[in-house]
Design brief:
The complex is a heterodimer. Helix content of chain A is about 35%, strand content about 20%. By secondary structure, chain A is of the alpha/beta class. Chain A has five domains: about 170 residues, FAD/NAD(P)-binding domain, CATH 3.50.50; about 110 residues, FAD/NAD(P)-binding domain, CATH 3.50.50.60; about 55 residues, no CATH class; about 80 residues, Sulfite Reductase Hemoprotein,Domain 2 (Sulfite Reductase Hemoprotein, domain 2), CATH 3.90.480.10; about 160 residues, Sulfite Reductase Hemoprotein, domain 1. Chain A has a five-stranded parallel β-sheet, with helices on one face. In chain A, strands 9-16-10-11-12 form a five-stranded parallel β-sheet, with helices on one face. Chain A has a five-stranded antiparallel β-sheet with strand order 21-22-25-24-23, with helices on both faces. In chain A, helix 7 links the parallel strand 11 and strand 12. Chain B is mainly β. Chain B has no helices and ten strands. In chain B, the strands form three sheets. Chain B has a four-stranded antiparallel β-sheet with strand order 2-3-4-8, with no helix packed on it. In chain B, strands 1-10-9 form a three-stranded antiparallel β-sheet, with no helix packed on it. A three-stranded antiparallel β-sheet of chain B has the order 5-6-7, with no helix packed on it. The termini of chain B are close together. Classes of the chains: A alpha/beta, B mainly beta.
Amino acid sequence: MNTTRERLVLIGNGMAGVATLEQIIKLGGAYDITVIGSEPHPNYNRIMLSYVLEGSQTIDDIVLNSHEWYEENQITLHTGVTVTAIDSDTQMVVTDNGMQIPYDKVIIATGSKSLILPIPGHEKQGVVGFRDIADCHQMLEAAKNYRTAAVIGGGLLGLEAAKGLVSLGMDVTVVHLMDDLMERQLDSVAAAMLKKELESQGIKFRMGAQTAELQGGERVERLLFKDGSTLQADFVVMAAGIRPNIEVAKNSGIEAARGILVDDYLRTSMDNVYAVGECVQHRDTCYGLVAPLFEQGMVLAKHICGSECQPYEGSTVSTKLKISGVDVFSAGVFIENEHQSVITARDDWKKTYKKIILQDNIIVGAVLFGDINDSAQLQKLIRESAPMTDELYAELMGTGGCSHSKKKASVETMANDEIVCGCNGVTKLDIVSAIQDKGLTSVEEIKACTGATRSCGGCKPVVEQILQYVLGDGAAVASSQGMCGCTTHSRDEVVAAIREKGLRTVKEVMNVMEWHNPEGCSKCRPAINYYLGMIYPVEYQDEKSSRFVNERMNANIQKDGTYTVVPRMYGGVTTPEDLKKIADVSVKYNVKAVKMTGGQRIDLIGVEKEDLPKVWEELDMPSGYAYAKSLRTVKTCVGSQFCRFGTQDSMGMGASLEQRFERLDFPAKFKMAVNGCPRNCAESCTKDIGIVGNDGGWEIFIGGNGGIKARLADSFCKVKTDQELIDLCGAIIQYYRETGKYLERTSEWVERMGLDTIKAAILEDENNRQQLVERVNLALAQVEDPWQKVLNDEETRTALFGKKVEV
Amino acid sequence: MNSVQTFYPVGQIDEFMSRIGRVLELKGIELAVFRTSDNQIYALENRNPHPKGGPIAEGIVSGHVLYDPLYDWQINLENGQVQAPDEGQVRTFDVKLEGGQVWIAV
C-alpha cells in the first residue's frame, strides 16, 4: 500500500457524494477513500424511488454502485453508520458507533430529509416522509394493509408519492396548501391541466387546505384541517418539502444557515472540509434537484484533484415530473411579470401546453405540458440566455419547416462537458467518446456503456440527436442492413439462399453466406435454425445449441436460474383430476408461486432445473409451450355449451384448434382466442388470430397484439363452417411461418406485408391456400411433445438437466 | 493468489455436448463447463456477471464467446471477461485434457 496517499473521507453515501468520487477516480485522484453512509444500502438512484413505488422498477434496478464497485476502487464502505462530528484539531471523523477515522480531506454529502411538519400527531404510526428506500418499503407495506392514504404536499415529490400509492391500489388524496399544484414550478394553466390529468388517473385532491392536526389512536386515522373539516386516512405521507441535513456541520462548528455554507469551490468554513449536494447552501440557494448535484460534483472533483476548473456559479434548475404518462417540464422563470413577454400555445384537445417567457427578447423560462420534446433544447437556451430569433420561434412553435437539421446543430454547439443525463451525470463528451471508441450505434448500447438514459429517460431525445450527429447518415444505412451484426445479408436473402442453394445446416448457411462471425450470435443462430426447420420440416435436425435457453430447456428461465412450468390446458379448460395433480406436484417440488397466466393457464414458478423432468413426469400433461416461439394458448369464453348468449361452441373449437396447431415452430410467440359471440369475452382483438362466433359462422381477425406495441386485430374474413375455419387458420399460420421475420409478431407482419397482400395470397388464390394448408399439415405431422421426448431420451435428460455432480 | 492448484477429474470429453453448457459442482464451487466447436473445454464459475446475478451455463456458445442466457451479455470463455459495451468478469478455472479425460483445477 502506498503510504503517501492522502486520506479522503466522504460523509454520506448518496448520489451527490458518490458521483463526486466517480469524477475524482476518473480524473486519477490518488486517495485512500472511505465512505460512511447511514442507510444500509450501496449508492442508489434516489430520484427513481417513484418508479419503484409505481412498480415499474425494483430496488435492484435503481442501485447505481454495487458493492463490487466499492471493492474494485478500493473504497472502504461503512453502511448503517452515522457521522456525528468532524474534529479539526485531531483531523478525525467521529461516528456514532465510536469509530475515529483520520482524514486529510472530507466531503460532506449528507443530502436532505423530508420536512416533517410539526403539527400535533405527526409522531403517530403511519406517518412517513418520502425520501429513501426505508420510506418506500413502508409505503409498499402500508398499501398491503391499509386502504386510504393522504399525501400532504402537492409538489413534485408529493404527486409522485400519490401516484405510486394509487398504483398500489390505495385510495389517495393529495392535500395541498395552495390553490395550484407544483406552484414552485408551474403556472396556473399548466397546474390545472396537470390536476385534471392526475384526477383521471385516480388521484383525489383537497386544495387550499391547511392540516391542523393528525388524529387517531397510536396510529393515524384522520386529518383535521384548519377550517374544521376532516379527511379519513390510515396512512399519511409528508411531502411538504425537504430540509438539508446539517447536523454534522453544526456539531463541528462549520458555518451553516439553511444548508451548509460553501463558496464557489464547494469549500466550507473549515479547512479541508468540502460539502456537495442537497446539504449545501451556495449563494443563498439550496437545491433539491439532481442536475445541480452533478454540476457541483464536477467542480469539486476537479478542485480536489488539482485540475484547472471554472468556479461553480449556480445552476439553472429544471423540473420533470416522474409519473408515467404525465409529461411536465419547467425551467427558469415560469410566471411572468409585467416586464416580460410570453409566447403560449395551448391545445385542450391534444392536452398540450407550451409557454416561453422572454425578457428583453432573451429566453428566461419555459413551461411544457403534454409534449416535452423541446425540453432539452429549452433548458439549454435558458441556461445560455439565448435571444429569441425567427428561426428559433419557427422551430419551437411549430410554424417553420425543417426543424430536424436545426436540432442537430444545437447538439453540435453543445459544450463537451455539458451534462446530458442529469440522473447519472453523463456528459456529451462521455457519449461521443463511447460512440467513437466502442463503435456504438444505438441508444441501447449507449445506455449500457455510459448509463445515459438509464434512469428517468428524459434525455433520450438528446442522446438520439448526439448519436445521429456523431455517426451522420452512414450509421442509419449500416444498421438497417443485415439480420444482425454477423452479416450484411437480410432475412429474405438468407431464406432465398437456403432454398436455392439447398443449404441444410446453420453452419452451412454461415459458411456459404460468408458470415463475419463464423459461429454467429444469439440473434442469427436461433433465426437460421428456425428458417431451416420451416423450409425442411421433415429432414431438418433441430440444433439444440442454437436454441435460446427457454426453448432448449422447454421451460422459462427466471432471474435466479429456476424455471417456470405451464402444463397444457386445451382452450383453457381443465379438470378436477388435473388440478389435483398440479397441486400435488407444486407441493412436492416446493414451487415458489402458482399463478394464473394471461392466457388462462396455470404457471408453476420457481422449479429447480434438476427437478424439471420429474415435474413433467409426475404432471403427466403435455407441455403448455409458455416458453416457445410457438402457439402459446387458445383463450376461450364459455360459449354455447353453457352461456345463454353463446352462439358457437367456443370452448370446443378453442380446444380443437389448440390440439391441431400446438408444438409447431413460429417466427415468434403466437396467441389465439375463440369467442362464442360478439361480446368477445376472450378478447380476440389482441390476438395473432382472434375468432368471433356469430349465428351463421365465424369471423376471423388477425394481427392483434396486447403487448409492447398494442394493436387491434384486423378483420380478415367470415366463414360459415368449422372446417373452413380450421383450414383458414392453417393457411394464415403457414403463410406467416413462411414470410415472417424471426421474432416478428403478426402485428408487425401484417403492417409490413399489408393486409391486402395477405388476403390476396390466402383468400383470393384458392390454389395457394390449399398448398399452404398441405404444407402446414406436413409440418404438423412431425411435431411431438417435448417433455415426453426428454423423458424418453436419457442422454439429453442427463446432459441438460443432469444433477450437479459432486466430484 | 492460490499458488497450489489441484486438478480433479470431471469426466470424459464425450460427456460434454458440443456448445451446450453443463453445470458441475466441484469442491463447493458451482461451475459452468462448455465444450466449444473446436473441442476445447472451458470452466467458468456459474455466476452471471450482471448485477442481478443468475446462472450462465444455459447460454448460446459461439466460437470462444458465450451469450449469457439472461441478459445476452457476451462473455469471453478464455478469460471470463465480459465484452463491450458491458463490463464485468467471470471467474475462470484451469482445464486440461489428457486423452479423453477432462481435468479442472480449483
